[in-house]
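Could you please review the protein record set out just below?
***
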Amino acid sequence: MRRLLLFLVLIGALAASAAQAQSGASLDQRLDQLSRKIGVDALRPNSDNQDVERAGQAALEERGRQRLYDAWRVLYAYKSNQIRRRFEPWAERARVVARRDNDPALAALVDLQTLALRHETEGFRAFTDADWTRFMDRSGPDIRLMAGIEQVRHLGQVGRWREAARLATELTNEAERQDKIAQPVLAELHQIHSYTLADMGDKEGALEHMTRAAELDEGDTFFLRKTERLYDIAYTAADLGAIEQARRFAALHHRWVAGSGNADLVTWDRYLCAKIANLADQPREVLSCLAGARALIDRPERRLQVVMLGLRATAQAQLGQASAARADLARMQSIPDALGPRDLSGEALIKAYVDQAEGRSTQAFRDLDAWRKAEALRVARQNARNVAEMSAALDGELRAKRDESRRLAEQVQLSRSLVRASVIIVLLLAVLVAGGIGWALHQRRASQRLKGAQERAEAANQAKSAFLAVMSHELRTPLNGMLGLAQALRTDALTPEQREQIDLILDSGDTLLVLLNDILDLSKIEAGKLEIAPTTGDLIGSCARLVGGYQPTAREKGVALSFRLESEPPGPLMFDGVRVRQCLTNLVSNALKFTNEGKVEVGLACYPEQDGRVRVRLRVSDTGIGMSQETIAKLFRPFTQADASTTRNFGGTGLGLNITRRLVKMMRGEIKVESEEGRGSVFTIEMLVDPAEPADAPAGAEDAAEAPEGFAALQGRRVLVVDDHPVNRRVIRLFLEPFDCELIEAENGQIALDILTQQPIDLVLMDVNMPVMDGLEATRRLRMHPRFYRLPVIALTADVMSAQIKTCLDAGCDAHVAKPIDLRNLLSAMDRCLSRTREPAAG
């Protein structure tokens, strides 16, 4: 099989050579067409790479992927032409920008191109496997494309053409799926791929990819890159045997380089001239081409200069200049390994010519014969390896085709078996079809009925939750006016009878507010919008403070209320403090409500589990009225209480325990109840929580909210109140009058913006839902103006859903206060915002 593959490859190569020999005119036409695509007629020399320098300056002033690709164009232009004196300053500037902007992609690009420059000038030895892994796999898709160019070039240089061609095809497909910003990289991938195809002998394929690169290059106007493309055309023409075409393109390349005055391109120009003269077997022309680069060749510092030294030594030896050739040969043999491996066969050929020139013809013949044998062996091995490379690629393709053929054969065999079985299948289906159709119709009708019932149930549940949420939201607006006015009246000098009446109003309003909060929590739970957010905290302190807050109520009823820790202290834990306190509040308030004498005890115990988590047990026991088993069975249903007398005697809605059970379940726990009529009840919550590091515990976080504040920052401030309800504006005016605040009122967001442009304002209280322009839109427009960028804005809304609060903050509000407005919450929020901006932010 291997011999057959080799035979096919050799036949194909011979056929291609014959076709190429018969199409000389076509080759000339293609080369001319390619030269026109890169614009050889319209291009004007650019002095001192000013176009690249301008592009580099513009690139570093950009951001994101645009900066990355434009910086690549600049660094790659200097790197591929090995212009180190230009490359290194731009690499350093890009590295500084990458550090300043914390741009890892730009930093990776600089590292990649710096290493690639070393790689090309030091014999393709700089990159390691770790480097390829970093840039190809760990630096993102954009850097992968840029690094892929360097890896394809490397694989082609070391003769791994099959891998180079496969990788070039893969990366080209990836680049074509990118947006237009990656077009310069795609063009270079085609150009590098053409080098690999040329090395493999596929000159026509190489020209096709060079043409595609020239088409994509239309937007890249760097003179340096256009010169490089012309160089590649001339080089390829020489390799294809079109020496006259190559000379014409090389002459044009020389005029461009000379006209630009760019000394960095002289080395490439002289090498191209010498390369073509060497292929034409004209050693005197080789020396003429290299005469202008004598200083560089005598002391080579780059791989290209080493190759030029070899060309000069060979030409001198062929012309009989033995002394000069021997000197160059000594230079070649002393070149360090960092610039690449020695060309031993080339050195042997030079030595043979030197021996002939000095009259040692026999020795020259022997050296030349030894060189011929070594060269023949090297070419044979090279050809064998090349054929093996192509054979391996073809073998892989044939293996894939064999697998595909095998799968097709198996599918055909299966199809035949299915055809043979089709008669039996048809008979069986004929027997089953009647019953099957009837059964299917029955199942379809049943499924439709079930689906309809499920949809109706879900719609009813969603409608109920939506109704509860909307109603609780709408009720907050009048409740805000009632509670706000009551709080304002409470601050005035009142008679005992009047104060008692105000207290009754506040108590009734607080009861209604608790009911609304319960309804809102229930609707959020049923809608799946309530989330548990664990944070680090002190569970013992939270529970102890909550129980302490109920001591006045317990003393008023003559009930002993206590809290004790029933285990070792657990240390900081991860738990949702708001929801844990809500659950414990419901249990403690219920226990006090149903206990007229005796005691209420709250116990906390924490036990470590084997998996590292902590089991928390909260127990609330009372000596109250107790419950029967029938009552316990329906205890956790929403809007359900023990009996009608419970509501009349004790109040409440029956939502608290239902919400508690749902919250406990969301916190990976369960709630149990034990009770006996006339002897009291015991509610137990058990749940699993995660431990937290002591360093993570926010010291005094819970006590901070209770710290006394003087609200000194409010004194004498100008406050803009934006609300479409006059009662709400009146409530806020009553709240702020004791602080000598000057209030300006607006009915909607548009009026508020007009006022802000006319007079100085220290703080804005912004309602969210208003006609004409709502508070969120007004805040967004306000933040777009630099004058009001730091003006404090506090959102006031009856919607206390977390999504609404986040929307307010995202729109630019500094804080959020829920309606009904609590006086202390409002004053605290205003004081915090004004304390951060002691000087007026506007006006």
The first strand starts at residue 535 and ends at 537. The chain has a mean pLDDT of 79.
